[in-house]
User: Fold Kinesin-like protein from Arabidopsis suecica.
Amino acid sequence: MSTTSGAGALNYRNGTQRSSLRTQSSTSTSSGGQKSSVKSKSVLRKSSPAALGGGGSKSGSGGDAGVPGRVRVAVRLRPRNGEELIADADFADCVELQPELKRLKLRKNNWDTDTFEFDEVLTEYASQKRVYEVVAKPVVEGVLDGYNGTIMAYGQTGTGKTYTLGQLGEEDVADRGIMVRAMEDILAEVSLETDSISVSYLQLYMETVQDLLDPSNDNIAIVEDPKNGDVSLPGATLVEIRDQQSFLELLQLGEAHRFAANTKLNTESSRSHAILMVNVRRSLKTRDGLSSESNGNSHMTKSLKPPVVRKGKLVVVDLAGSERINKSGSEGHTLEEAKSINLSLSALGKCINALAENSSHVPFRDSKLTRLLRDSFGGTARTSLVITIGPSPRHRGETTSTIMFGQRAMKVENMVKLKEEFDYKSLSRRLEVQLDNLIEENERQQKAFVDEIERITVEAHNQISEAEKRYANALEDEKQRYQNDYMESIKKLEENWSKNQKKLAAERLALGEKNGLDITSNGNRSIAPALEEVSELKKLLQKEAQSKMAAEEEVNRLKHQLTEFKKVEASGNSEIMRLHKMLENETQQKEKLEGEIATLHSQLLQLSLTADETRRNLEQHGSEKTSSARDSLMSQLRLPQIQDPGNAEKPPVARLFEQVGLQKILSLLEAEDADVRIHAVKVVANLAAEEANQQQIVEAGGLTSLLMLLKNTEDETIHRVAAGAIANLAMNETNQELIMDQGGIGLLSSTAANAEDPQTLRMVAGAIANLCGNDKLQTKLRSEGGIAALLGMVRCGHPDVLAQVARGIANFAKCESRASTQGTKRGKSLLIEDGALSWIVQNAKTETAAIRRHIELALCHLAQHEGNAKEMVKEGAIWELVRISRDCSREDIRSLAHRTLTSSPTFLTELRRLRVDIR
Ligand code: ADP
Ligand code: MG
Assistant:
């Protein structure tokens, strides 16, 4: 018995191929005279990519097709129960399991068995843990990685579906079923700060969906998203789960409501389907988000990548018992009720049969169950089915049909796809916060700067007035001192003088008394003391002169000091000037910052524009699918970016256009940053989609820039969007000539030669197709390789591309036929010379209406010119014309074909020769 887990679980991953056992041969082994054959012819598939979940940066809802992953099927045998141990004591089990070979032998009678292979064979001894690991764990891991997952149990009532899925294991944790274990794994893996888990729990009975978490909600509508076909139940209660206990309580509550609802409806739970839906939303933390905060400027405009969220949905389905309800209604149901009870289950069987046989129609819409499980079978989810059987030989019939159901389910192939998308909302929130921070920081700096200037100015003023005061004081002091000195000297001189006078008088008096002589006559005698006086006076005079000099020196020194002070004052002024300059610089810096804020704003708009565009594209895809009738010539001409001109509200691009200005947007086409370039070209493309803007774009040099982008970049997205814009501009005759003059055909041809993406090719083909419709450009277009480029693109095979190629050919043929009617064209068609005719003939019967109609028109135009008739007979185009003249759904084309056939002598001769009557 294989009760250990591990290796089995690894092999069990959806999307990986276990090829060791899945041999195609139906080996026959015989033992003991018993005959058995391996019935399972299933499932050796084309090799599929091994690893899933590392899918990196795909943007989920886009066009990626996913990875093949087959529905995995395990069979689980319930041990004999008490009654069976007694009643079947003398009988062998109706099945024999070979878990190591992953085979199940079903006893047909005593000597004959059928052998079946499954992805996993779980015996009556398999533990709940092992069942979880092989059946559910890989699916749960997928859900955590962002893939949808389904786990479903199918089997007769009483064989252990609910035990396998819904057992709570309250008494013995070893008994816990898949729902409980799955939530344990999910809670262990997610981080509740960034991720969220929400749960709904529903019952489907008699085509009515009831909410097991809110019994009053007993008729929930299933809503289908018209864009992508996703189904949802907006009316169902959604409960956020943050811990295991609340989940267990929720399951118990659901079970109680289920019991009550079924009692009310007078049925058993085995007649209804229980559906648990677990939504896991995870934010991807890595990538260069906006972590570096607002410490500056330009680097942050680059990090505009929005955060990524992955949304995986786990659906666990406990189906109603697969046994047939007695048709007579003996269980208390009328026949109508019985049919209704079985409707969903039998619809599921029909869908699985259709998918297993690769049938073109799968009747998903027949029942609510199949609508809800659309993604689980043949969709994008990883799906794991466990079929439960009992051992009793009395139920061999039911057991056999359960096994056959499982075998068919093994053939269903899903395309497992990552559910990842950009979280534009949170990016926008983050950018807004950042913008606020930047503005705040800028204001703060501004204020600090103004304060600083004020402080420095006040300080300088204080210093200057202090210096002036000091200088004035010093000057006053000096002056005072010299005045004092001077006054003192004068006083001394006066004293001396009066002293001398007195002395002189006394001496004269003494002399007169002694000699009685006249003073004047005796003057010679008093000469000596007088001389002394004079020399003393001279000395005094000299001293006076010296102190005068000293005073002058002092004045000079003070003057010098004054000039020094003046200098200090001047340098204070220049400091103020410097500060003024700094103020100016800061103002400029601020303006630059504001510019960047504006750029951020515009990029924000561009982002929302990108989101719009994606949405629009999705919408268009959706509507293309639903209405194939809507392919008028107009919608062929107008490429996908084009907006509805009747739209009253201005689209974000137009707003951006007004705010940022065309020149600025065009200059961004040459930006260094690839992201900016891509955004810019998208904006230009959207503008070019509006006829009103086209002339302005061309005049501003936009057309030249777009053509240069084809030449100078390698980026496929840029090529696609630029080509789309050129295609729109190429709808106008003047622009067509400009495109040709600027070497447009050569650029478009080389873009077409290098492109892989069908959408790029579609845009290029659309652009050339528009040019093909210009009578004046025919020869030039062909000689520069336009027709060859168109024909080269059919290699891609995508119907949208082929439709554009066919349109181009039809346009060209129409111009040619016009020219030949006017007599300006002679000889064979250039299209035929370039080998277009064989492609035209090959595709004339294509299923795709859009392609066929252009080809039919092209054939009619070519046939109008007798110069082409011979070649058309040779290539078999004449038969297509005959067919068109008979079967074409459009009257005008039908009669055009008829007219051309009957007016060409060559055609008439050929038809007569082959006795074809076209009347
Ligand atoms: P179903 O949901 O298919 O009608 P249940 O899960 O209710 O079946 O199982 C019927 C009975 O069998 C229950 O009493 C359950 O406990 C028991 N049972 C089912 N599978 C097992 C198993 N593998 N081991 C032990 N008991 C089981
Ligand atoms: Mg049950």
Remarks:
- Residues 161-162, 269-270, 318 surround magnesium ion (ligand 2) (CB under 6 Å).
- The CA atoms of residues 351 and 362 lie 5 Å apart.
- The mean pLDDT is 82.
- The chain is about 55% helix and 10% strand.
